[in-house]
Write a structure and sequence with these properties.
5 helices, about 15% strand, about 35% helix
Amino acid sequence: MMRTDDHNNPTAMTTAVALLGGLILGTDFEIGEPFDVAGFEFHTARLIGNPLNLTIKVIDKIGFITKGGSPRWEYIRFPHFVWLSFEQSTKVDVIGWMYEHEGGSLMRALFPNYGKQ
């Protein structure tokens, strides 16, 4: 199973991103399974509740680019003001695109435009 589906987390965000984005450990997410990147261990946030609302809350707060200028997700990067200008349905579409990119499949029903070109 993919990290997205196993953690109710369509973007496979880490616990560090969840915390930075204002989610509360034990209320909004739990510490999920560890994974390794370049010798560093990270944990996927296991989201509790509505994964779309929680993901939008995080991205609304911190955007796609770190303070250092690096993308939070290697495959998507655009200015925070652009994200904030989107309607809710567009934000859902973007998260659906990210979910597809992350290899998720079990939460497809959350994304009405999933897989559309």
